[in-house]
Design goal:
Elements lengths: L1 H6 L5 H17 L4 H21 L5 H28 L13 H20 L2 H12 L4 H8 L3 H22 L3 H5 L1
Helix pairs in contact: 2-3, 2-4, 3-4, 5-8, 6-8, 7-8
C-alpha cells in the first residue's frame, strides 16, 4: 500500500502555482477580502497536496474550488456561532416551535408501520381496536354492538396493541423518541 503512495506522481509545482492563482481569482470574484482569500487558498492547497499523496485527483481545479467553497462556508458558520455566543441571543430565524425533521420522519414511518399492521390484522380485532382507541367507545358498547362480552373486547384490544407494538419493534421504530 505504501508503495502505491510513493509511486503515485505528485502534480508539478506549476500546477500548484496555477491552482493558487485560479483560487485567488475565484475567491476574490466571490467577494472574499484579500487576506481571507490568501488564507483559504493556502489551506486549500495544503489539503490538496495532502490528498495528492494518498489518492489520484481527477480534476485539481474542481476539487480546489469545492474545498475553498467548503472552507468559506465553515468560516461563516464559525463566525455566526461566535456572534451568537457573544450576544447570548438565539437567532430568531433559526428558532422554531415546529418539530424537527427527524421527529417528523420518525412519526411518518411509525404511521406507515401502524397502518400496514392494521390492514393485516384480523377484521374483528381491527374493528374493536379502532372503535376503542380512535373512536373512544366503551368496551361495553362495543361488546353490545358486536354481540360479545366486555372481556372478549378487552382481549381483542390487548392482542391488537401487542400486534402494533411488535410491528413497531420489528421496524425499529422507537415510539418514545417520537412523542417526547
Amino acid at each position: 500500500m505504501l508503495s502505491n503512495v510513493i509511486d503515485r506522481p505528485v502534480p508539478a509545482a506549476q500546477d500548484w502555482n496555477a491552482a493558487r492563482a485560479a483560487l485567488l481569482r475565484y475567491l476574490r470574484a466571490k467577494g472574499a477580502p484579500p487576506d481571507l482569500a490568501d488564507d483559504v487558498a493556502q489551506e486549500t492547497l495544503a489539503r490538496l497536496i495532502a490528498l495528492s499523496h494518498t489518492q489520484q485527483i481527477g480534476s485539481l481545479f474542481a476539487l480546489a474550488f469545492r474545498i475553498a467553497d467548503n472552507l468559506i462556508v465553515d468560516g461563516r458558520r464559525r463566525e455566526a456561532r461566535r456572534r451568537v455566543r457573544e450576544s447570548g441571543e438565539v437567532d430568531e430565524e433559526w428558532e422554531s416551535d415546529d418539530p424537527s425533521l427527524d421527529r417528523v420522519l420518525d412519526s411518518r414511518r411509525a404511521l406507515d408501520v401502524l397502518s400496514l399492521c392494521l390492514r393485516r390484522m384480523p377484521p374483528l380485532r381491527r374493528e374493536v381496536l379502532i372503535r376503542r382507541r380512535l373512536d373512544q367507545e366503551s368496551c361495553r358498547a362495543i361488546g353490545e354492538d358486536l354481540a360479545m362480552s366486555a372481556k372478549a373486547v378487552e382481549k381483542h384490544i390487548t392482542r391488537g396493541l401487542l400486534d402494533l407494538r411488535a410491528a413497531l419493534d420489528r421496524a425499529g421504530v422507537d415510539v418514545a423518541g417520537i412523542g417526547g
